[in-house]
Specification:
3 domains; 0% strand; single chain; mainly alpha
């Protein structure tokens, strides 16, 4: 009589063990899928922040936040995407929300100040940067501090911040161009020319610095193109810029000659230069 009972107990135990094993296996599978989902989501977030269309990224992070409104990474992704989409009026409050969330750091406040500057809210941006600890010394902070000093025409602080920012990045071309433009607006044309030249040496593709360099030379009455890397289209555009600079200073004959050179140099029909030359002829 004991054998059937013993067999029943064994079978029950086997079923229980099998059930536990099956449950453990199911839990393991579910955890594995959760891990995969986390990895996939992380990769998708990275894609949305870098190569995706900015407006598509905004839609993606907006949808994701509806399901997970307390996720700092998603709110930060939305704010970054709004900046990439040049929707600065929406980006500023999005960054403001980031700074109020648990886990937000000083660099989030810097990004908030950046968005405020892009919407022309200089005082609010200055307040955001002033609230940062002095130990938070980053390229982005000093780049913005320099721009704020420019807006206040505090040239000593501006130069100091630009110099610090330049030393905190391996790609200083953009900040050198901004520094040069600051010098240009002050009328310090030689220093501006030097800084634009350095920006171009750091990044030979930076056309904005090339154009600004031509403006700095033109402001000094130097209407010759600098020896810098340029293709045919860029050369025509720079000749056009130099022509307008000459005309602005009253050197009409030189301006006309430069406009003709620009029209002849451009590989296609150069409508802005043609219009300017026709206007001078009229």
């Amino acid at each position: 009589m004991r054998h059937p009972i013993f067999m029943s107990a064994c079978l029950a135990g086997a079923v229980l063990i099998a059930g536990c094993a099956e449950k453990d296996a199911q839990d393991t599978v579910e955890r594995a899928f959760q891990d995969v989902n986390v990895i996939d989501e992380s990769n998708l977030n990275d894609v949305m922040l870098t190569v995706a269309d900015p407006n598509e990224a905004v839609s993606y992070f907006t949808r994701s936040l509806k399901a997970n409104p307390d996720r700092l990474d998603l709110q930060r992704g939305l704010a970054y995407s709004l900046v990439r989409a040049k929707r600065f009026a929406e980006a500023a409050p999005a960054w403001a929300k980031v700074t109020e969330m648990e886990g937000a750091g000083p660099e989030d406040s810097v990004a908030y100040a950046d968005a405020l500057i892009r919407t022309g809210k200089w005082k609010e941006a200055e307040a955001a940067l002033d609230a940062l600890p002095p130990t938070h010394e980053t390229f982005n902070r000093y780049r913005l501090e320099a721009m704020l000093a420019d807006s206040n025409e505090d040239w000593t602080r501006s130069d100091s911040f630009y110099e610090i920012a330049t030393g905190l990045t391996t790609k200083p071309s953009g900040v050198l161009n901004n520094w040069g433009y600051s010098k240009l607006t002050r009328g310090d044309y030689q220093d501006a020319e030097r800084l634009f030249g350095e920006a171009i040496r750091q990044d030979p593709t930076l056309f904005t610095a090339k154009n600004n360099l031509v403006l700095a030379r033109g402001a000094q009455g130097d209407y010759t193109l600098p020896v810098i890397p340029m293709d045919q289209t860029e050369r025509a555009q720079l000749l056009h810029t130099m022509a307008l600079s000459a005309i602005k200073q009253g050197d009409i004959t030189v301006g006309k000659s430069l406009l003709r050179d620009a029209i002849e140099t451009h590989p296609q029909h150069f409508e802005p230069a043609v219009r300017a030359l026709n206007a001078l002829g009229a």
